Amino acid sequence: QVQLVESGGGLVQAGASLRLSCTASGLTFSGYTTGWFRQAPGKEREFVAAISKIGGSTYHADSVKGRFTIFRDNAKNTLHLQMNSLKPEDTAVYYCAASATLGSVLHTTVSAYNYWGQGTQVTVSS
Questions:
Q1: Which of 17, 24, 78, 106 is the most buried (most CB within 10 A)?
Q2: Backbone Cα Rg of the chain
Q3: CA 110 to chain centre
Q4: CB within 8 A of 106, min separation 6: which ones?
Q5: By C-alpha distance, which of 44, 24, 46 is closest to 34?
Q6: C-alpha pair distances (Å), 106 with each of 36, 85, 89, 99, 117
């Protein structure tokens, strides 16, 4: 079955960097648009970044643009999120997701993604 497993979360101070990774199995990874979402306590899950099937196109939420970078390695079935200049408001559980929708649109809604990881906690202290 399809599995997405995140890693790389942790507790850091404001201004630090973290790299999240997501390893996929059970699917042809290069056939899926992939993305990162996050959910803070008491808030809805929100879009962070998405990347096209072969990595040629990316889209980042305004709140992380210039600080976070999404990239993927299809040869290793992995998705990554490089997070720099972290802020306390970045604290959340981060989820990777894969979308089987056709075409090249980089979806930003939860409903567009078919498969989800279990999440990894990122906590940024001030």
A1: 24
A2: 13
A3: 12
A4: 33, 35, 50, 51, 52, 57, 58, 59
A5: 24
A6: 12, 25, 24, 9, 18
